[in-house]
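Quick one:
INPUT:
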């Protein structure tokens, strides 16, 4: 089911066909290095190179009897090679092949995720510049706080996505290692030089030390990096959902021609895409926890991690790839209701300017406790009566004793709150200029 909704590149990477092809890539690299060292006869290498192939159905048939996937794979390839197939898998243990191949798959899959993440970042950057100066109310605890712009919200998303991309890059480096050190990591059948040469052919680094397996903290680091990206996508999707509430109405995810929102209520336009992203983030997070559980194995190896990884590794990459694709489409096509943003900003009758009023009164000599008491009293009354804050402030003799009429007006000037938006954008997008786009005036 997960593969059905994933993009073709990622689905192909985690297919059984590609998994076995990657195993064969490792086997061939090892055979070539051994041939160069005089261990494998040249004619055997030629036969293996020319005739090595496999059939997934045949591997499954053999595995149903031997109950061992690598033995089934090697047996099938050797069937196709002929007598020289005895040199395939020479000196190797199963994990030499499986773990090195898994590192290759995870490295390539992380690269695909990075491409998808960069695509989302480009869309977020473009829309950030588009709405850099579009005023809206900032909310803390879900309650109106102070004015901001929608572009700033998008810039915040971009910066977090950029940190996620950095984590992916570091995780990709951590997983880009191979091992051919044998059953307990002692190189009892092949020397370290063979491992180094094989890894070089595969563009991997040899693990400095390994047991029968590569240590699973590496895999856990990759999956926790994926989980952090998924958490950021969930954060963005949750915010879009919250701003799409009917009573808020500031954003709306794309709603296609012919799309239906409810079987019972024809009027519904639900944020189903964002809800899907939110739900799938839970899967990636849960998989990261399972990867952490895989770190502790008995002695030099057991296989308690193996069954888990067959599920969590492909699924985490497949799910996150889909989430990135879906959210990129949503952010790029979502409707942004700047008029509704301004209406919501103005709906409190100026309450969102209370903090600046407090500071101005203190700056002109009033004790902070007195200023807070006066401003809060007017604010609480404005909450109760749903308006009148600015009028009440303008008519208060204690306030007018320290602030002239034009100074009160300056407190309520929207543009004053947005003066440093450009400075924030220069910080966030240094070296990553968003595409030019139109902007919305900031002044009241």
């Amino acid at each position: 089911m997960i593969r059905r909704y994933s993009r073709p590149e990622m689905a192909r990477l985690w297919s059984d066909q590609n998994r076995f092809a990657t195993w064969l890539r490792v086997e061939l690299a090892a055979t070539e290095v051994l041939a160069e060292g005089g261990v494998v006869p040249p004619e055997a290498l030629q036969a293996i190179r020319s005739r090595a192939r496999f059939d997934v159905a045949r591997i499954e048939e053999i595995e149903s009897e031997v109950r061992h996937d690598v033995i089934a794979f090697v047996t099938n390839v050797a069937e196709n090679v002929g007598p020289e197939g005895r040199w395939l898998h020479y000196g190797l243990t199963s994990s030499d092949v499986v773990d090195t191949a898994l590192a290759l798959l995870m490295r390539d899959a992380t690269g695909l995720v990075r491409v998808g993440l960069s695509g989302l970042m480009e869309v977020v950057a473009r829309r950030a510049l588009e709405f850099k100066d579009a005023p809206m109310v900032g909310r803390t605890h879900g309650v109106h706080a102070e004015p901001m712009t929608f572009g700033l919200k998008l810039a915040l998303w971009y910066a977090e996505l950029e940190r996620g991309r950095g984590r992916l890059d570091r995780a990709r480096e951590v997983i880009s290692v191979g091992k051919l050190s044998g059953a307990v990591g002692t190189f009892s059948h092949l020397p370290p030089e063979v491992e180094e040469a094989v890894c070089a052919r595969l563009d991997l680094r040899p693990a400095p030390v390994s047991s029968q397996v590569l240590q699973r903290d590496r895999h856990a680091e990759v999956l926790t990096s994926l989980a952090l990206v998924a958490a950021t996508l969930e954060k963005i999707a949750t915010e879009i959902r919250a701003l799409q509430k009917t009573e808020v109405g500031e954003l709306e995810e794309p709603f296609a021609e012919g799309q239906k929102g409810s079987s019972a209520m024809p009027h519904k336009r639900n944020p189903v895409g964002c809800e899907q992203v939110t739900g799938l983030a839970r899967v990636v997070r849960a998989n990261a926890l399972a990867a952490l559980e895989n770190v502790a194995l008995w002695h030099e190896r057991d296989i308690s991690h193996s069954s888990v990884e067959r599920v969590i590794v492909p699924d985490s990459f497949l799910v996150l790839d889909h989430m990135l694709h879906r959210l990129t489409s949503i952010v790029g096509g979502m409707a942004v209701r700047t008029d509704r943003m301004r209406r919501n900003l103005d709906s409190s009758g100026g309450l969102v300017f209370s903090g600046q009023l407090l500071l101005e009164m203190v700056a002109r000599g009033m004790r902070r406790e007195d200023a807070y008491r006066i401003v809060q009293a007017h604010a609480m009354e404005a909450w109760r009566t749903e308006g009148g804050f600015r009028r009440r402030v303008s008519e208060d003799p204690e306030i007018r004793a320290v602030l002239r009429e034009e100074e009160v007006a300056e407190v309520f000037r929207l543009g004053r709150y947005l003066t440093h938006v450009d400075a924030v954008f220069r910080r966030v997008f240094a070296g990553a200029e968003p595409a030019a786009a139109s902007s919305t005036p900031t002044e009241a």
